[in-house]
Design brief:
The chain has about 350 residues and is α/β, with parallel strands linked by helices. It folds into three domains: about 80 residues, Winged helix-like DNA-binding domain superfamily/Winged helix DNA-binding domain (Arc Repressor Mutant, subunit A); about 55 residues, no CATH class; about 160 residues, Vaccinia Virus protein VP39 (Rossmann fold). About 50% of the residues lie in helices and about 15% in strands. The protein has 19 helices and ten strands. The strands form two sheets. Strands 6-5-4-7-8-10-9 form a seven-stranded mixed beta sheet, sandwiched between helices. Strand 7, helix 17 and strand 8 form a beta-alpha-beta unit. The longest helix is centred in the middle third of the chain and has 15 residues.
Length: about 350
């Protein structure tokens, strides 16, 4: 096997081919291939018949997936799932299936197709493509909204457990997770810290999905839920407020609105904890530098450096204390009211 690095031009060309791999994985999720092999290997012809697809083309598609380690061709024309392919199953705990369907859906691709106009106008690709904002569009499509919430568990995985290991949440008697979605993050954090009680606060149609998950995890007695709009207000009187992957969804002006509402609600000796992928300065590579472009396309939000977070916090009446790294990409930006 040739282990020589690719020439620089070939590396750049391979980056350009990235959309092909995106489409391969998205189609595998769309066809629910993970479930097609639940009972073991099957022939591509049998799967083609089941899905009413063209057998020769489906074979070539599955061969390509095998080349990428998602399937394995156990004998000619017969395929099974690899360990990687198992992650495509809808019920897999890491939620890759939902993440793929949400992250590279036709709507997302349509937004990215507006890239030239985004750079020209400063508007989001999604607004240019659909005439409305991402979250407004999602709120009108409950099924896709649920899929998006599930996808966050896939994107961020067990991140809350790494956050819980990096910070002592047990010093708080109460924690509000503002924009806490279905309760995944706060329930995982409190599973590692037995003292605090919690509240998941989000839009009513979003937080409605939380009680079932909290019950499943045995957290119903410790974590309550409340619907609302964090641009209007947030529940008052908690010792700590978590904003987990919320700030990056919005432009600076909207971020300051959220932070000011947290400032009005927080106890005088409370802590604000922003959980985000904090951009490194300079040319240091980081996944969030590419994710930042997706925020530009979809929501008008932004991934930010520590300096940028410090400035926004100061505008809203907070002082940034420190940025705490974790064992994953996420960092904890700790701030106090001033």
């Amino acid at each position: 096997m040739n282990t020589e690095p690719l020439p620089l031009s070939a590396q750049l060309i391979r980056m350009g081919y990235g959309f092909m791999y995106t489409k391969l994985v998205y189609m595998a999720a769309s066809l629910n291939l993970g479930e097609r092999f639940t009972n073991g290997p099957r022939s591509s012809d049998a799967v083609a018949k089941e899905l009413e697809l063209h057998p020769p083309f489906l074979y070539r598609f599955m061969r390509a997936l095998a080349g990428e380690g998602i399937l394995t061709e156990v004998e000619e024309g017969v395929f099974g799932l690899t360990t990687l392919g198992e992650c495509l199953k809808p019920d897999h705990p890491d939620a890759a299936y939902a993440s793929i369907l949400a992250s590279v859906s036709p709507a997302v691709i349509a937004a990215w197709e507006k890239f030239p106009e985004v750079l020209q106008t400063g508007k989001t690709g999604f607004n240019l493509a659909f005439g409305q904002g991402w979250f407004e569009w999602l709120s009108e499509r409950p099924g896709l909204s649920t899929q998006f919430n599930q996808s966050m568990a896939g994107v961020f995985g067990k991140e809350p457990l790494h956050v819980a290991a990096a910070y002592d949440f047990s010093v708080f008697d109460s924690i509000a997770d503002v924009g806490g979605g279905n309760g995944n993050g706060l329930s995982l954090i409190l599973s590692q810290h037995q003292g605090p009680r919690g509240l998941v606060f989000d839009q009513p149609h979003v937080v409605a999905e939380a009680p079932a998950l909290l019950s499943e995890r045995g957290m119903s007695a410790r974590i309550a839920t409340q619907g609302g709009n964090f641009f209007a207000s947030v529940p008052a009187g908690f010792a700590a407020y978590i904003l987990s992957h919320i700030i990056h969804d919005w432009d600076d002006n909207r971020v300051v609105e959220i932070l000011e509402n947290c400032r009005r609600a927080i106890k005088p000796d409370g802590k604000l904890l922003i959980l985000e992928w904090v951009l490194p300065e300079g040319d240091t590579p980081h996944v969030a530098k590419v994710v930042d472009i997706n925020m530009m396309m979809l929501m008008g939000g932004e991934e930010r450096t520590a300096k940028q977070y410090g400035r926004l916090l100061a505008q809203a009446g907070f002082r940034m204390i420190r940025v705490i790294p974790t064992r994953c990409e996420c960092s904890i930006v700790e701030a106090v009211p001033v």
